[in-house]
Amino acid sequence: MSLNKDFYWGASSSAFQIEGANRADGKGLSTVDVRPVKTGIADTSVAADFYHNWREDISLMDKLGINAFRLSISWSRIYPTGNGELNNDGLAFYDRVIDCLLDHNIEPIITINHFDMPQALIDQYNGWLSRKSVEDFARYTKTLFLHFGDRVKTWLTINEPLMLMYNPGYNGSHYDRADETTSSNFLILHHILLAEKYAFKLCHQLIKNGKIAPVSAFQNVYPLSSEYEDVSAALTAESILSYWALDVAVKGSYPKTTYERLNKLGLAPKVSHADEIIFQMDVPDFIAFNYYSSIHVGGYHQTEKFIPPFFNFPLFSVDMGEERKTAKWSAMSSDSNGLVMSARKLFDRYQIPLMITENGFADTEEPDDSKKINDQERIKYLQEHVSACQEILGLEIPLKGYFVWSFLDSLSGREGYSKRYGLVYVNRDDQDLRDMKRIPKQSFYWYQDFIKSQNN
Ligand code: BG6
Fold it and tell me: Transmembrane segments in this chain: where (predicted)?
């Protein structure tokens, strides 16, 4: 398989899932630091300890051969209270990481915010639920662009607004929304979408040759059957889950008929004239999307197999299948054709370049007797999905890169360390920090060979 040389073969991460050191050097707490954790030490205090191990980890990235690494910046390391004093030690940490990546010819691709909002902003005004968050996000973003913009040219705004709007552990919301989707979910999302517009504009104003994108948790939806009710529900689901946020980012307005339907249900946010003007500001340079597998949708209450609280909606129901409840979900419902279809849908609708910023396979893994992690299923999953990239490029879709989630075994948002995604094993579990040693899995060596074959 041959792809163009400018293509990014990368790996992905996010701050709270790898850094640890959640109180170090002036860092303020964020939503993910204070939410209840499942068990033991599956919290953000150590995670994969990237905060102290970054130099060694970047050497391993170099060994792997990736030409880009996606990381996120922790907002509360830079502004411990979200909108007060700047913490220069926080900037200095990311300076060291970015400079080291560049020394190794690995391009840093930075997500401005990946699920972790400063807790102080929740305490001040309920975080994204308040419009004040838009201004504070813009200020934080401006600081990043002015400080890092000479070295970092590719930026991603806010990871997966859809997941952020639903997950109270990430967005810090105080209301109980476990049983259904409420107008508060959509208000959170509305503020996120306004905030993104400022990020697009600031990037274009402040960073020479800067490029910026939203990051979608794109849902490729199949109807449960060819019955009208299921097909129609599938259309609605895709419109809400996948196009609602991206339409604002790229086209400047919500999808019209879907907006009207949600409005009738009292769920749609009010769009003021001032909002309309902000929505018409800069557009992104490309679309980043995270893809694991596809979903099946039927008419409301066609299936009992919801995964509450996600996607629990009065217009459609999602059947993610029993396997989605297990650690191996992304592989058991693996659908690399769905990646191709997602790219086709996105490119036809928006006609700007695409980047796959997350794709990966989760499992519960421990080294075998020979101290190896022989993760053949992950290798198969990755093989199928990089082949899908080739198919996408064959369709003349400008795909800029593919990033494996994730480089290191990182703290799973939902399952701590009982579920691992890394190309590199980290020797710890939910209860015991052991020695935190890094062990490249067999998939690491597979990806290394694959990248080499692309460079020849
Ligand atoms: C993506 C997120 O939605 O899914 C990652 O961007 C996350 O941060 C990944 O880790 C897998 O989800 P989880 O809950 O299994 O960690």
Answer: none
Tell me, in angstroms, the distance from the centre of ligand 1 to residue 173's CA. 19
Q: Does domain 8-455 have CATH number 3.20.20.80?
A: yes
Burial class (CB in 10 A: 0-12, 13-18, 19+), 285: middle
3-state helix, strand, coil in the chain (%, to 5): 45, 15, 40
Q: At 275, list the tokens.
A: 């909002």
Q: How many residues does the chain have?
A: 456
Check if 365 is active-site.
Answer: no
Cα 341 to ligand 1 centroid, rounded to whole Å:
21
Tell me the best of 113, 163, 170, 403 to mutate to test the pocket of ligand 1, counting ligand atoms within 8 Å of each CB and taking the most. Answer: 163
pTM: 0.96
Ligand 1 within 6 A of 171 CB?
no
- The atom number, within ligand 1, closest to the CA of 412 reads 16
Paired strand residues for 439: 425
Does residue 160 have its Cβ closer than 6 Å to ligand 1? Answer: yes
All residue ranges of the chain with pLDDT < 70 are: 1-5, 38-39, 174-180, 300-313, 320-332
**Token code pair at residue 70:** 């996606």
What is the distance between the alpha carbons of residues 80 and 118, in angstroms, rounded to a whole number?
Answer: 7
The answer, yes or no, to whether any atom of ligand 1 lies below 6 A from the CB of 107, is no
The answer for residues whose C-beta is within 8 angstroms of residue 361's C-beta and 6 or more apart is 328, 330, 331, 334, 375, 377, 378, 381, 382, 421
C-alpha dist (Å) from residue 31 to 76, 117, 135, 164, 173: 10, 5, 19, 11, 9
DSSP string covering 386-443, please? HHHHHHHHHTT--EEEEEEE-SB---BTTTBTSSB--SEEES--SS--TT--EEE-HH
Ligand 1 neighbourhood includes 113 CB (under 6 angstroms):
no
| Contact yes or no for 234/225 (Cβ under 8 A) | no
For residue 118 and ligand 1, the question of a CB distance below 6 A is answered with: no
Rg (CA), the chain: 21
Q: Quick check: is 160 catalytic?
A: yes
